[in-house]
Each structure stands twice: as structure tokens, then as C-alpha cells.
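Technical note accompanying the year-one report. For the benefit of new consortium partners, we illustrate the data format agreed upon in the data management plan: each record pairs a sequence with a C-alpha cell string. No post-processing was applied to the example shown here.
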Amino acid sequence: MAKLHRIMKSLACFVLITVFLGCAATSKRESTGQYVDDSAITTKVKAAIFDESTLKTLQINVKTYKGVVQLSGFVDSAHSVIKAGEVAGGVNGVVSVKNDLVVK
């Protein structure tokens, strides 16, 4: 019975370690908390761009990774490229903006 108890303790420790390492962040992977934060930032940036009267376009794609927002897609003018970058940079939680918008 003592041997079974010891095996169960070892198994429980192994499972806990595996779970904690699975949720840890690495240089190429986000932790669960970072993923949730980035999803919230993406939603806020999309809403801010949509609320901006000069940027009412659905052709701007927003992706966030570790607080860095990437804008991609097409806009009508160079002014819109600059304005979208400014709007995205003004959102709380954004570390930096990578603006890959293209004028069509």
C-alpha cells in the first residue's frame, strides 16, 4: 500500500509539472495569460479603428503578439496608413505597432 501511495504522489507531481510547463511562455510561444491579453488588445484596436471616422474599413487586419500589434491590409490613402498606426498605438496595452498597411 505504501508503494502504491508513493507511485501516486510521483504521478501527481509529474502531472503538475507538465501542466505548469505547458502554460509557460517561451521566446516563440505565449503563455495562456499573454494570449488572453493579446486577444483583448486585438479587440480594442479593431474597435478603435472602426470607431475612427476616417478609417471605416473592414480591410484592415489586426494581429497581436506579446503586445506588439501588426496591421495589414489595404487602405485608400497614405494618411489612412498613418492614422491607423496612431490609433493602434493609442490603445492601452500596446507595446509597439508594426504597420504593414498598403495603399491601393
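Partners are asked to follow this layout when depositing records. The first helix runs from residue 2 to 22.
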